[in-house]
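Dear colleague,

Following up on Tuesday's group meeting, I ran the structure prediction for the two-component complex that the binding team flagged. I've pasted the input sequences exactly as they went in, so you can double-check that nothing got truncated or mislabelled along the way. The C-alpha cells for the whole assembly follow below. Feel free to forward this to whoever is handling the docking comparison.

Inputs:
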Amino acid sequence: MKEFKHVIADPMGLHARPAGMLVKAVAPYASKVTVIAPTGKADARRLMGIMRLAAKAGMELTIQVEGADEETAAAELQAFMAANL
Amino acid sequence: MGFLDKLFSRPVYSLYAPMAGRAVSVADVPDSAFSGGLLGKGIAVIPTDGRVLAPCDATVDVVFTTGHAVSLIADFGAEILIHVGLSVTARDSRFFTACVQSGQKVRRGDLLIEVDLPAATGAGLDLTTPMLVTNASEYAQIQINTGADVTNSDVAVQLAK
C-alpha cells in the first residue's frame, strides 16, 4: 500500500466540483483509493462519500492507494491533488 | 406517468423540479463540472423563485457549509445533489440559508434552502441550479424533462433500474 498526505488548498474545501474531479481522476486506476480526513474516511470512487467528509480548507487528508497499479496511481494522484485541490 | 412504465414492468421513480423556473439540460450548463457529466446525470433549473424544495421523499445527507448545496438519499435509493448556482464561492454564502440538517427526513416539497434571489442575481451570480443523480450508473434508464417552465409539481427526472 502507498500513502500520501494532502492539505486542502481550495478555500471552499472539498466541495462538489473538486470532489467530482477527484472521482474522475481516480477512475482509470485499478487500485482501491481511500481518502481519510479528520471527519471520516471515504472510497475515492464514491462522490457522495467524498462530499460527506465535508473536508475544509487547511484540513489534512491521508490518501491510501492499494492495488496492482498503486505506485503509478499514488504518484499521479498526488500530483493531481497538489495541482487541483 | 411517462413512456418508461409502458416500456418496462419495473418501477419508475420520479424526481420533481427542485425550484420554480426553466428546466434545461445539464449538458447546456456553462460549467464543465456539470455539463461533462462528471457529477452525475440530471437537469438544471434557471430559477425564478429562491426556494429550493425536496424533489422526492428523502433523507438529507450533506448540507454544504456555504448553504448553497445539499445532497439527499431518496427513499427509493437515488443519491441526489442539488447545487444552487454555478460559480458560487465562500463569500457568497450570505445569499443562502440552509433550512435542513444532515440526517433529517424530508417529504417532497419541503424547503431545503432559501436563496436571496434578487441580491444574489444583483451580485452577478449565475443561479442555474443543477440537480444530479450522482449514482446514475445504477439506473438503466434516465428520462429528463427539459425546455419547459416548471415548479415542484412537475416531474423533472424519471429513473428506472
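The domain at 2-84 of chain A is CATH 3.30.1340.10 (Histidine-containing Protein; Chain: A;).

Cheers,
M.
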